[in-house]
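User: Here's a chain of 350 residues. Predict its fold as tokens.
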Amino acid sequence: MRFPLLAALLSIPAFAQSPNDLEAVVATPLGVIRFEFAPDKAPKHVSEFIARARAGYYNGSAFHRAVANGIIQGGDPLLKNPKTPKNLWGTGGLNLLAGNYSGMKHERGVVSTVRIPNKPNSDGAQFFICVSAQPPLDGQFSAFGRVTEGMDVVERISQVPTGENGFTDTPVRIEKLTIEPKKLEPYLNTPAGQLRRTVKLPTTLGVIEITLEPDWAPNHVRAFLKLLETGWYNGTAFHRIVKEFVVQGGMGHTRPNGAPHNADRWVHNLKGEFRDDVKHVRGIVSMARGDDPDSATTSFFLMLGPAPHLDGKYSAFGRITGGMEVLEAFEKEEVDGESPKRRLEILPSK
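Assistant: Prediction complete.
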């Protein structure tokens, strides 16, 4: 990244809210990017970025440089003027901050600060986002955030046409960059008594109604509700049908092209909630897992028949109370081994 020096002065007010509770929201013509901050890694960079954003510093600027599936770079205030000559792109808003080179790796989604090459302590207001891991940048640039939503938008920006020095043929405008409270994980603190409800699971073969049982597995009910209501399950496939045993689905990589989802940030391992008195019989809904008892995440299965060997070892969290004819339709699907011969999906709710 070779940029000549252009000093810029800006009075930065202090912020009242903890940066741990805030996110940057970057609106572009290609979609919205949200990223959280890492004040423990680069506190000065975080505080000044938030202050600048709140003052409207980034509104109307642009992502002016892109490396396909590598990085995107933006935030130069000179780009607010659409007549700024291309030879000046990337020269604004530098040499404002000392570097803060922490142990934060430049992994996919990491947000970091642009500086003048070969000049220590020349960090500025410009920033870049890693589309893929960039190990050579570790310890060389000041990382201060991580994307929580919109990596698909970051990827699209990285793929716009570019010319010399990676400058975009047409800048991708930052229409507005605001600071908002961080989105909270749905149902995280909902009391178990308020989780008992019946939900609809639309599928290629029809709608299945599931009555959730938080008395059995409250944290698995929370996770299922979160993924269902945020639309995380939409487009995921039922990838396994074993006659008289299970129908299994709900894995993110089964979406078309393995597309990411905004709720990916809330996917995490669930501690097993096993009960010997809850039997895995036809119509029970339970969560799949790996060899580790606490490795369940998103994949679930619908029981087609009794399987006592699962009792006390898998976390059942609901039962089918409507749409048993849909379950029967799944049983009739042709399979290749355990894989359905045609694609069967969870569909968006109407």
